[in-house]
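User: I'm putting together notes for a lab meeting next week and I want to include a structural view of one of the chains we've been expressing. I don't have a solved structure, so I'd like a prediction I can at least talk through. The sequence is below, exactly as it appears in our construct file.
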Amino acid sequence: MKLKNFPFAIALTLTICVSTLQVVNAGAPASASTNAGAADVKGVVKFEGVPPKGKPISMAADPSCAKQHSGLVTTLDVATDSKGGLQNVLVFISDGLGDRTFDPPKEPVVITQKGCLYEPRVMAVQANQPIEVVNDDPTSHNIHPTPANNREWNKAELPGAKVEEAFAREEIAIPVRCNIHPWMRGYIAVLKNPYFAVTKPDGSFELSNLPPGTYTIKAWHEKLGTSTQTITIGANQTKEINFVFKSM
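Assistant: Thanks for the context. Below is the predicted structure for the 248-residue chain, given as structure tokens.
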């Protein structure tokens, strides 16, 4: 069979392929390999002074919780390492992105209930990103976020169960508790952009793949409040900034 329009078909196919390669999901931040000129911000959050000691947690009300711990369990309101690095601090871009919008990731962020504690204690998601709550304990839990700017929900979970939810609006940060085990405390921060991080045990953080510009960066801690800095960062630049918190 002869193809009278064979050259035209080849040209049309090539046009379609090239057009397909140029399609970019405008709502999601491009990866470092595709975002030419992307900048990075990194640093450390520290606590200055003597951190308050954690208070003992009594799990006597539920022996199955206590059995999962070999020693005394204390509160983790202010968790530092030997050099003062402050863990569980949310660092995020609060201003400077203009009218850019970002599609939420489809992959859920996971909270695990383990040893009748929340892991992680502080977590961050984008608005409308799925949150999966897993009960990894041999006892029932009742996860109960109490937002001020989002829909409140309160769900019981049997051992091994999973619950998936999401929050639609930005809020920093939503307290989370378990109605069955009152010592369980956590926080979920909801942001409208993907430029955020929760500090590691040594207080370090990194905000990657930022467009060049001037930004307001905030560091939030559940007990110590919020600290703010403004920076200007250029294309392909890496800038280091540090935050310091003190006892309130």
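A couple of points you could mention at the meeting. Confidence is low (pLDDT under 50) at residues 1-34. Helices lie at 6-21, 63-66.

User: Perfect, that's what I needed.
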